[in-house]
Amino acid sequence: MLTFIGLGLYDEQSVTVEGREALRAADRVFAEFYTSRLVGADVDDLEAAHGIDVEVRDREGVERDPDAILAAAEAGDVAFCTAGDTMISTTHTDLRMRAEDRGIDTRVIHGVTAQSAASSLTGLQNYRFGKAVTLPFPYAHGGDDVPGSVIEAIEANRERGLHTLVYLDIKVGTGPTGPDPDHEEYMTAAYAADLLADGWADELGVVIARAGSPDPVVAADRLSALADRTFGDPLHMLVIPGDLHHVEAEALVGLADAPETVLEE
């Protein structure tokens, strides 16, 4: 059996009760933290809280050479964990299909996701979001600006009046000069706002920092203004709103300190 477990958004306590019980019942527990991480806990915290040993796999060991995970799941009960939800944004459908092809039973125990938290914390209605995008560090795509695919997706959403959730790049194990096992880099919302302000300086943006933590930050302003602010420790996200329902506009003023003058434009 291979059980995919979403650990939630913040620390070792963010996993659901169902997920916690599955972790403790597993013969072996694998995890990856290259696509996201729990900013309020490390592997030692997870192990101590749940009485488990966690085997952390890098991208190569999950996406290209997952045989150790699959072989263990053929022999016993295995848990595979990520921050958030294992099948939303951090998608491991390929690993699940490989398991199914080998006759291994699988199941998914969901965790709270950044996607749902973005809607919940900002007051922006979930069904008014369009296609989400990931904004990479410029060095990651060989350019010095925002990739055309990101611009096109945001513009397509705006034309339909939809909000865009912008996930911000995380680089673990690789840096500007190539593979580096000690490299960890998390794009900040201010950096992202600065990149996007080149094309949309006066447009409204909404920052969400440390969703799921005891002290999340939600801030709305023009992208050019957000670029000059700091929002503390990672992880950060950014939303580019589309057309706002009056309740959404009121929520951004009340929950994110959006300038009313920006919303009136």
CATH C-level category of the largest domain: Alpha Beta
The span between the termini is 55 Å
The run of helices and strands is EHEHEHHEHEHEHEEEHEEHEHH
Which geometry do the CA atoms define?
globular
- Helical content stands at 25-40%
Subunit structure: Homodimer.
EC number: 2.1.1.98
Pathway: Protein modification; peptidyl-diphthamide biosynthesis
Protein name: Diphthine synthase
Description:
The chain folds into two domains: 2-109, Tetrapyrrole methylase, N-terminal domain (Cobalt-precorrin-4 Transmethylase, domain 1, 3-Layer(aba) Sandwich), CATH 3.40.1010; 114-264, Tetrapyrrole methylase, C-terminal domain (Methyltransferase, Cobalt-precorrin-4 Transmethylase, Domain 2, 2-Layer Sandwich). It is of the alpha/beta class and 265 residues long. It contains eleven helices and twelve strands. The longest helix has 12 residues, at 148-159. Homodimer. This is Diphthine synthase. InterPro entries: 4pyrrol_Mease (IPR000878), 4pyrrol_Methylase_sf (IPR035996), 4pyrrole_Mease_sub1 (IPR014777), 4pyrrole_Mease_sub2 (IPR014776), Dphthn_synthase (IPR004551).
